[in-house]
Batch of 2 targets.
Target 1
Amino acid sequence: MFRIVPEVRTLIAVRIVAVTTLLVVVLIVQFTTDQFLPINYLYLVAALTYALTIVYLAVAALVVDRAVNLAVQVAGDLLVETLLVYFTGGLDSPFSFLYLVSIITASMLLYRRGGLLTASACVILYAGLGDLLYYGVIPMPEQGFFSMTPFSSFRLYLNMATNFAGFYATALLTSYVSEKLRVTSLELDANRRSLAQLKVLNENVIASIPSGLITVAPSGVISFANPSACEILACPAVEIVGRPLADLELFPEEDWERLRDAMLTRKAARGETEHYMRGGDRVTIGYAVTPLNTLDGQPAGISIIFQDLTDVKRLEEQLRLKDRMAAVGELSAGIAHEIRNPLAAIAGSVQVLKKSERLAPQEQRLMSIILKESDRLNKSIQDFLQFVRPSERRAIEFDVVASLSETLDLLSNSLELGAEHTLERALDPPKYMLVGDPDQIRQVFWNIARNAIQAMPRGGRLRVTTAATYDAIRIEFADNGRGMSDHEQRALFQPFRTNFPTGTGLGMAISFRIVQEHGGRIEVDSEPEGGTAIALTLPRVPTMRS
Ligand code: ADP
Ligand code: MG
């Protein structure tokens, strides 16, 4: 079956029902009264309507346009109505109201233009019929049941005038209402569409912002969490939504007071917290808490917008350290030089004096102490100078795993490593080419590995492992030595902070600088008495930083 516009179909159906009902009523009337009613023309009207219905269906099959279909039907109706009016007494006919039905239908379905056109068509048909009957051009129908009394011309015009006024008034009123309805429903549609768009936009914005967003109902239960919130908190939405905010442990106890105050005064609160634990690591979170309102201004809970500041904080810390190191370096490089020259003179002179044969053994011993200590001092200054004014950095391609192996071999054979120490290595891949300064990188390995040994004065195990991706290699030195407190860890890269008996406190400061210059980073994981793991990540090709 072909598709018919719903309104066109409805109109056909309603008409069929109306005509069929009429037909049934007529049949009942004719067979139940003994009196013969001359209403056979009603059969004609019904037959005509059924026939026209076939035409309407044919038109609907051929033309999709709704207005054309409706116009054809209205025209057909007007034709049938005019016939009916003619059969039932012309201008006296009780059926002339049917014109109004058609006008209302057209006004409603085809709006103002359709309504007025139909009203005009009715005027023409009605006036035409009236005039043709009045002037005797067509005969009066021979029915007798409804008879047309001869009209005076005055009655004729009065009848027409009142009918015409009725036709147009109906068309105007009905189409006014239907136009209004049409505009309203168009507006409603547009509003609904823009509302839907706004909703989608809102959802997109909330889903795509890089900040975490959580809303909390007045009861304290979390009612919403966007994807970024789940990512920052490393917790799926199902585990966040529906839980009390306090359970999330985003804020420490002492912050609650302040937040509550802000809520009570309906003001926003901002801050930073390091309370949240993400898989064993503390996360620094910067947040803004804002009260939410309903449309009529009632409190509706709060929203929390937050960011993960952990990386930013780490960078800040590193920058601060770099600044401090630069300042210290500038100042002390000069002094170091000033010490080194007289120191060389002292050591040289003592060396000469020591050769004298007139010295008592006690004096010889003292001289040796001077030499040994000045040597040590010289070594410290050398370290220091390297730290503040490192040698020219080369950038060549070399095998970093081979460098690591060599350094560890050197350490195995050095005096530092006692029998109570074990050195394990799992170096995979066996070869990894890197661009940088091999001497400096070797120095970093040496510094870190030596620290590990020094942190295990009573023996222990140093395990060196590597892991590589295409872009970078990660080298980890894990010892089971005495470990570091939080405080020690913070001071690890700062120059001159040492807890080793013969240390200078420069090894890690130098290493930090070298690794930075190679575009890499150092991560520290340590617990007091729980050993230390120092992980170096070096990119294959450094984005050179100064
Ligand atoms: P130095 O070795 O001259 O003391 P470093 O810069 O190499 O200077 O180390 C600084 C400090 O960091 C050390 O004195 C020590 O307290 C601590 N440290 C470094 N590595 C370790 C480690 N593997 N285990 C425990 N403490 C360490
Ligand atoms: Mg050291």
Target 2
Amino acid sequence: MTQMRLDKFLGEMGLGTRSQVKDLIKKGRVAVNGQTEKKSERKVDLSQDQVQADGQLISYTPWEYYLLNKPQGTVSATEDNRYPTVVDLIKDKKRKDLFPVGRLDVDTEGLLLITNDGNLTHCLLSPKKHVDKVYFARLTGTLPQDSVKRFQDGLVLDDGQKTRPAQLKVLNPGSSETEALLTIHEGKFHQVKRMFQALGCQVVYLKRISMGPLKLDDSLKPGQYRPLTAKELRELKDLETGRDEAK
Ligand code: URA
């Protein structure tokens, strides 16, 4: 039987700050199992108590997982003074403690997981787990003939750091504006752009199309999102517990 204070419950479910929620309770706008409850410290049993605020049933959601197609012009953060954040885009969220798993640049589009699951996040971002991230890039400049091998061998970035092996696939050889898929297994700052820069090319468009078992749906336009499916969540959890390594 998991219990939680009423004000904490309502705060976590996004009804306001702790003091706003206390105020709501004091004003008699909150009911537990149909009875008005004016005590913030009242414990609710998450498995059976029914909590209502202004007559609306509030169901407790401990974890949320959304797959977002991040649009350009948004920032991978929870707060920002200049740009809308990726968390602002999740209009259906129940919790107020969601954050993006890793960062995409302001001008990068594509797959971003938004959750409040810290353990899973740690696992997905851990260099030890080598989670594949696949990017679609459009470039100006000419890639050297031996680019595939140079990405595979590891490149030296502008600050002297060496990258781990990455897999390059050029999609339109011979075109003036190269389109390529790049798979990396780490997440250094501006990594993809800096890897192409190390070979004399500029990324003019960048989109992440997958991260581990998660793939970007064609159905999600930039700015759109959906909850993870049960299968996607299971695959992520297998990664977290190491069960995928046994396969
Ligand atoms: N690499 C970059 O350079 N930018 C991103 O947004 C993600 C990876």
